[in-house]
Amino acid sequence: MRVGLIGDPVTHSKSPAMQNAAFAALQIPARYEYWPALAAELPERIASLRATDVLGANVTIPHKRAVMPLLDEISEEARVTGAVNTIVRREARLIGHNTDVTGLVAALAEIGWQGMEQAVILGAGGAARAAVVALARLGAGAICVMARSVRAAQDLVLELAPEARHTSLLWGDLAATERHVWRRMLAGTDILVNATPVGMAHAPGTPLDDAVLNLIAAGTLVVECITHDTPLVRAARARELPALNGLPMLVHQGAAAFTLWTNHPAPLDVMRVAAQAR
Ligand code: NAP
């Protein structure tokens, strides 16, 4: 049986190593492959998942939303989040799920992170959506979504607001917001999540410039969705801020996907070791 990662780019991903180690540990005859796809190739790639030797797929940047109309059914979690990161084939039907939300909640639980008042999320794509849903579920009083496309941030907020009734959702322009606004916002922020790809090999650097990074309040948890220590994580640690890269989130979202494909509890420790080693 086969599973794969659909996205562009995909070859940086630790998911094949992590999932193949899990299949091997449980002696499940399946393999996880890289399935790179440009936007124009997405319909054909999704159609190929209907083959009887396919368990399903993961979906990553930039297709987590575009994939939704190509599927037969969307789970409640994926509907609420407005993004799909896991597809399961059940007979002839393709079902879209979102395991990024539980991935982030579990990663924060693992470090004993308690509830928060205020959060800032950078980016307005699939990971940002999952982060909004996760942090609202953990009781955030207010979440501000900062993106380079203000329209995308606004759309995200307006769409998710009905699902986050006890959380004030705000949006802003990642690039244009003035220093004094950042100062006021970051002074009361407990957790800052980078859900942009800035920090990956193809998009080096930090999503916030040094002057803004210096405004992050002491004690703020800086969470990176990218699965290694990016310049943002290093800059946060240099300022003695607690910081978490995206590896624990990856392992937990992958574990949830593994269970959806196989109906087996995931071997979490095996997956963590394999992801760390990649
Ligand atoms: P996505 O849906 O494509 O969204 C990316 C967001 O970042 C968009 O708002 C995009 O804005 C913005 N962005 C892109 N390049 C930027 C730049 N140079 N400066 C500022 N903003 C930029 O991608 P995604 O699926 O949310 O993934 C985002 C990151 O999270 C990726 O690095 C991915 O690998 C990681 N991730 C990790 C996990 C995990 O388990 N650890 C899970 C999910 C995602 P535009 O719309 O303007 O392009």
List keywords for this structure.
11 helices; alpha/beta; 278 residues; single chain; 6-stranded mixed β-sheet
Q: What would you say about this model in short?
A:
With 278 residues, the protein is α/β, with parallel strands linked by helices. Helix content is 38%, strand content 21%.
Instruction: Report low-confidence residues grouped into runs of 5 or more.
Output: none
Task: Assess the beta-strand content as a share of residues.
Answer: 15-25%
Q: What is the N-to-C order of secondary-structure elements (H for helix, E for strand)?
A: EHEHEEHEEHEHEHEHEHEHEHH
The average pLDDT is 96
Shape: globular
Would you mind describing this structure in some detail?
The chain is of the alpha/beta class. It has eleven helices and twelve strands. It has helices at about 15-25, 40-50, 75-80, 100-110, 125-135, 150-160, 180-185, 210-215, 230-240, 245-260, 270-275; strands at about 1-5, 30-35, 55-60, 75, 85-90, 95, 120, 140-145, 170-175, 190-195, 220-225, 245. The strands form two sheets. A six-stranded mixed β-sheet has the order 2-1-3-5-6-4. A six-stranded parallel β-sheet has the order 9-8-7-10-11-12, with helices on both faces. It is globular, with a radius of gyration of 18 Å. Bound molecules: NADP nicotinamide-adenine-dinucleotide phosphate. NADP nicotinamide-adenine-dinucleotide phosphate binds near residues 60, 124, 195, 198 and 200.
